[in-house]
Design goal:
The chain has 580 residues and is of the alpha/beta class. It has 16 helices and 22 strands. Helix content is 33%, strand content 21%. It has a 15-stranded mixed β-sheet that branches. Bound molecules: zinc ion.
């Protein structure tokens, strides 16, 4: 039934899209935006850039955030409709399909895993009664192996931060064989103010929970238990519970580092495990901050039975290409990304149960589509090709972009740069931009000059310790070596003091972020979104025409991935740009 319903819906959406774009003509060009005063782009490029219109972005956001789109859930009808809408726009702009078999759709095969309530999770000390935990309140757990059930009965080894980082001369494992064990570890990384040691206050990838699970799997452990501590995780237990309490989506193919059991426990539970082992958790945590830390086998076993509901999920990235104008350089590309998925619809919720995701991330999609239109209609084309990718399943853990990184339409080594747009506030004209991560790339001097041309101050990441760099889609592309960062607005807005911007951000985080109230409102002001799109256009155009592709700075954690991908694609310069 569902399949039968879709075609007519697509027809009406395409028709609505035409109506919307026709309606836009009347409002186009009314908003005056600060354009680059001394943009160094050639005149045809500048004309294309200046055609980027806040009212076009509004039209896309209004449509994508409509209740009819049902919150654009991954693997849900609303998400599929959003993908079709975006593909339709790409087609109307005359862009080349960059997906599977000559289509705009790149299918992302995923598996959804939901831990069932009949699962059990207990700590069994060598002497004394077992501690039986309650799912959600005391622990969360998931089985990454896509099996319907698994039994774990294994010794627990405390491994401190669970990090092996030769470049910082840090090894929490010290060669101890942890195969078949369950590893208990801390989130985050050893605290430091030294920029040469785990990048000082900033979080590196070693501090992210995804790394911890991957490292556990590499060491042959059967499970990892992370100890939640609010300041160390930079978010509360409710965030852990919400994001692990329901379905977790994984790439179907990417299964070599899959753990039978990945989990979190609350700080209280961790304290109890420590005291059952005759130890003090605070002391254990303190000991872990030393280079001399050694793994400790605890006199406690984990006994768990995880029952999982497994289902296949089909969802697609939507990918379009603008071929470059230079016969030698068109095998290389610059990429723009924005996720189109959001949290969908929650049928058993009372009241408004549609997570419209107007700001997150219909705004980024509107920007991506305006960029695509402007490039497609430019009277002159850049030398390198341009890729436009609206990715799926970001809210499920950057899954769509992970797949895109592993299956790029042009080999990763030939992609000079990725610029990502995620949750760009429609609240006015910013006088600042955030480009966290750009300073780690060879492209940064261009970013600085261009920001100046746009009258935009660059604000550094206010909380580098929170590791935001690792939480949006550009990170998936950085992992395969592509210099990548997100472009967003800073705190200072035209006509307002600095505090106003901070208040807006706080109000959004508390009252709308990841809530059904993130809805389109007619009083939204998309001039900042258009400005970010123009700024991104200018940056991308420059990157697409510079003699060299961009790199990570020497010694950066993604440098090795870049070298590897360039090695793999050596000689493919000027190739057909086919998928590999
Ligand atoms: Zn987002």
């Amino acid at each position: 039934m569902r399949k039968l319903l879709i075609p007519s819906a697509i027809v009406s959406i395409a028709f609505m899209a035409l109506l919307l774009s026709a309606a836009d003509k009347t409002t186009s060009g009314k908003t005056s935006l600060p354009a680059a005063s001394d943009s160094s782009l050639p005149a045809p490029a500048r004309a294309a850039m200046n055609s980027i219109d806040p009212e076009h972005i509004r039209a896309h956001v209004r449509f994508l955030a409509d209740d009819l789109l049902e919150g654009r859930g991954t693997g849900q009808r609303g998400g599929d409709l959003a993908a079709k809408y975006i593909a339709t726009q790409f087609a109307l702009y005359g862009l080349k399909p960059g997906g599977d078999n000559g289509t705009y759709m790149q299918k992302v095969p995923m598996v959804g895993v939901t831990t069932e309530p009949q699962s059990t999770f207990s700590f069994v000390p060598n002497s004394g009664p077992p501690m039986n935990l309650k799912f959600g309140d005391d622990y969360v757990a998931s089985n990454e192996t896509h099996q319907p059930d698994v039994d774990v009965n294994a010794d627990i080894v405390y491994v401190g931060y669970g990090i092996e980082a030769p470049e910082y001369k840090w090894d929490d494992y010290k060669g101890v064989d942890v195969r078949g064990k369950v590893l208990l570890m801390l989130v985050n990384e050893p605290p430091s103010n030294d920029p040469n040691f785990f990048k000082g206050k900033a979080l590196t990838y070693y501090g992210r929970w995804t790394y911890k699970y991957e490292e556990g799997a590499r060491k042959g452990a059967v499970g990892v238990i992370l100890i939640h501590k609010t300041d160390m995780a930079s978010y509360g237990w409710d965030v852990v519970r919400n994001s692990w309490g329901g379905e977790k989506d994984y790439l179907k193919e990417n299964n070599q580092l899959a753990l039978p059991l990945d989990s979190w426990v609350t700080l209280d539970v961790a304290r109890k495990i420590a005291s059952d082992s005759g130890k003090d958790l605070d002391k254990m945590m303190q000991d872990a901050t030393s280079r001399d830390f050694h793994p400790i086998q605890l006199p406690v076993k984990l006994k768990a039975h995880l029952v999982s509901k497994i289902r296949d999920i089909d969802s697609s990235n939507v990918v379009a290409m603008l071929p470059g104008s230079d016969p030698k350089m068109k095998g290389q590309a610059v990429m723009y990304t924005a996720h189109y998925d959001h949290l969908g619809i929650h049928p058993d919720m009372t009241g408004d149960n549609i997570y419209n995701g107007a700001a997150d991330n219909a705004t980024g999609c509107g920007i991506l589509l305006e960029l695509a239109r402007a490039y497609a209609q430019a009277a002159e084309k850049p030398k390198r090709s341009i890729i436009f990718a609206a990715v799926t399943a970001e809210e499920q853990g950057l899954v769509g972009s992970e797949y895109l990184g592993q299956h790029p339409p042009v080999p990763a080594g030939n992609i000079s740069l990725d610029l990502n747009f995620d949750d760009v506030p429609p609240i006015g004209t910013p006088e600042q931009t955030t480009v966290a991560g750009a300073e780690r790339t060879t492209f940064y001097p261009v970013v600085e000059t261009t920001a100046k041309q746009f009258g935009l101050g660059i604000v550094p990441d206010a909380r580098p310790e929170a590791g935001h760099y690792y939480r949006s889609d550009h990170f998936s592309l950085a992992r395969v070596g592509i210099p990548s960062f997100s472009v967003n607005e800073g705190d200072k807005y035209k006509g307002h003091p600095n505090e106003w911007g901070l208040e807006q951000a706080k109000d959004y985080n508390e009252h709308r972020y990841h809530q059904p109230s993130d809805e389109y409102r007619p009083d939204m002001d998309f001039s900042g979104d258009a400005l970010m799109a123009r700024f991104g256009f200018d940056l991308g155009w420059k990157a697409a025409n510079m003699p060299q592709v961009q790199q990570w700075q020497k010694g950066d954690e993604f440098e090795a991935a870049r070298l590897k991908s360039e090695h793999q694609t050596a000689g493919s310069l000027g190739g057909s740009g086919e998928s590999h």
